[in-house]
Structures are given as structure tokens and as C-alpha cells.
Amino acid sequence: MNSAPIQRVRERVGHGAKFGRKKEDAIAALLTQRNVEEAARAAGIGTQTLYRWMKEPEFKAAWREARRSAFGQSISRLQQASSAAVSTLLKAMVDPSAPYSSRVRAADRILDYSKKAIEIEDVEVRLAALELAAEQSK
Fold first, then answer.
1. Could you report the per-residue pLDDT of 96-109, keeping only the tens digit for each?
2. Tally of CA atoms within 13 A in the half-sphere of 89 that contains its CB
3. Which residues contact 89 (CB under 8 A, 6 or more apart)?
4. pTM of the entire structure?
5. Distance of CA 113 to CAs 14, 82, 97, 117, 128, Å?
6. Which of 54, 67, 106, 129 has the most CB atoms less than 10 A away?
7. How far apart are CA 39 and CA 66, in angstroms?
8. Which portions of the chain are predicted below pLDDT 70?
């Protein structure tokens, strides 16, 4: 796993803060291990200690920030791969040697994704208009 999410947590809490290295290690372990018990073991702490930390507001905020950062990196990788995915769908759709059902399914996915993209754009335009109206009414 990329260490960027944990690095951001360290920068946010600052050197000398009471948010210690063990808690940072626990957050890293929560992001990489299959469950809380394995995360506690990987961080070198007791399971009950980790459960207790997971209830602390500062720990929860740092853990949430690290999860969002890790998820954001995953989304970026998906976006990078989207061009290749579209190419694959297009090739499958027009490949005369592909089974007809595969070609129809690829065409259906392309139409479905295109429709969703238009709907998202419409919502964004409507939201921007509402935000502008709300701002002007202040």
C-alpha cells in the first residue's frame, strides 16, 4: 500500500502531538490488514486497545482521512484505466468474430455508461444553478 495516506496523517497531527507512532501504525495496519485483530497484531498492540482507540474522535478522524486518501488513490487508478476499458468495450462491440451476445452486451454497457454520464452532467448543472441562486439570495 502507498504510504501517502499515513504520511498525511503524520503531517496533520504534527510532530510531538499526543497522537503517537503506535496509533499511526495502527491506522496503517487497519488499511492493510483483513480485520481488526490482524491490524492490532501487525501494529504490536492488543485488540482491545485498538478497539478503544477506534472510538476516540482524534483517531477516528485520522483513520477516516487515511481511508479517504487511500480510496482517492484507487479512484485515480480506475480513471487512468478507463480509456483502456472503453477501448476494450468498443473492440468487443465491433469484433465480427465475437459472439453476438458479447457484442450486444458491450453496446448496452456503452449506452448505459453514456446515459449515466449525461445524467451526472445534468445534475452538476442543476446543482451549480442552485448554489448560485442560494449565493445570490444571501
1. 999 999 999 999 99
2. 17
3. 106, 109, 110
4. 0.55
5. 43, 12, 24, 6, 22
6. 106
7. 15
8. 1-18
